[in-house]
């Protein structure tokens, strides 16, 4: 039996691996022929330890460590609760409107369940007690009598998607991306758009379920699955505890919209899970408590007046505990006071505070001395991610080389990076295409090169225009002579001349959007998106390309920010990465670092 996954370490009773469960996996792992998926929440409020699938038969299994003393006292009550749970499961699954065959059994290896006239049928069909467990050990095939029949492949896959949505990630097309070879991708249409659901890896399932109370930190580079894990945990806990409230919070609206859309397409209307960006959350609370918001002042100086509203909200909510769990994504953009406030509105005990961060995505100089604002907290668990589920092997190697070359360069200037600042990854994908760096003579040749690459990707590689993004650092830049370069305008004109459709990136654009052409974007509007092909240009726009011994700490900080801008651009790519520049190595140490990162 291939199991996903048994090495779970959780402080939550509903997710921990029980003693009888451990013994079952140890004994039957090599004796049963099917596939097992652990810790399922098929419907709200009901948790299943194991979903066992053999020859398209489905068997739900719950393990009970109940001993003889407790069972002898609570026999009637336990049987009644178990039967009610089974009937509730059947009623809820009927609402799926799927002609699916399945069964639920309770394995109770430490007790003898005697005949009971009231529950006789339930005991016979749904309980394996000590004697039945011994028979199962002697002959594993006896499990077959609890199977209710084979299901069609399509129905089985769809049912799996319905009952454990948190074990899937939604992508737009991804014909060449597969995370788990044991489970087929599920393709479906929603509102005329085609989506694909991919089953996560055993490692990811382990991390989803290994939940501890208190503070947990997820650290990892782009593409390593941090947001997927946070989203999955939020879904899992909201379904496990339907009477408690949970909050998923981001800093920017784009990521918030992406998370909302992901959960909506997973088909889960989780009324106890709130999803906000931080500013929207504070304004929502301000309105809820009838605080006065002066929109004129807000337009004049958003940051200053927002701080005023935030202080009022903090004061009103002092000593108020609202949420059992809070999940913060892109924590590198938050400050200490914001994190303290979010921590303060959690339950006082048995709360769950999960934070995800990537220090290299700091492009606002938010991190002082490379220290994250979350480092004021004491963490019960720190999880570092080094798998890359987004990018091909060659692209991952290039970015790892870029990381190493950056470290080698910066160490010449007495900069002490913490170990968690530059993290490398290992790709879980195919080998892929080489990264290209194209040097051109001027902006006119650069535009021609961009157009050529787009047409090549579409006509020769089979990509759609919507698979491609053109990224540049800023929309415009002022030169030393006072002239302004409006690269966006020049690019747009060239695309129109060749009848290439395009769109601008904004807060509403998400990974699952139906994009009507090539996306063009500065780095700030693309921070949370991914594309099959990235054309990165206008590195020349960056204000600092070299360092020397005379540079101040402030100037070194700006140079590192520029490297972070490049890192974000590079990590938006899935299959193809093309860098186009007029700068040569003698003009720019950044170009030298990039060139040295090629194979």
From TrEMBL:
It comes from the Bacteria. Keywords: ATP-binding, Helicase, Hydrolase, Nucleotide-binding. Transmembrane segments: none annotated. InterPro entries: DNA_helicase_UvrD/REP, P-loop_NTPase, UvrD-like_ATP-bd. Pfam families: UvrD-helicase (PF00580). Residues 203-388 form the UvrD-like helicase ATP-binding domain. One of its GO terms (molecular function) is hydrolase activity. This is UvrD/REP helicase N-terminal domain-containing protein. It comes from Tepidibacter thalassicus DSM 15285.
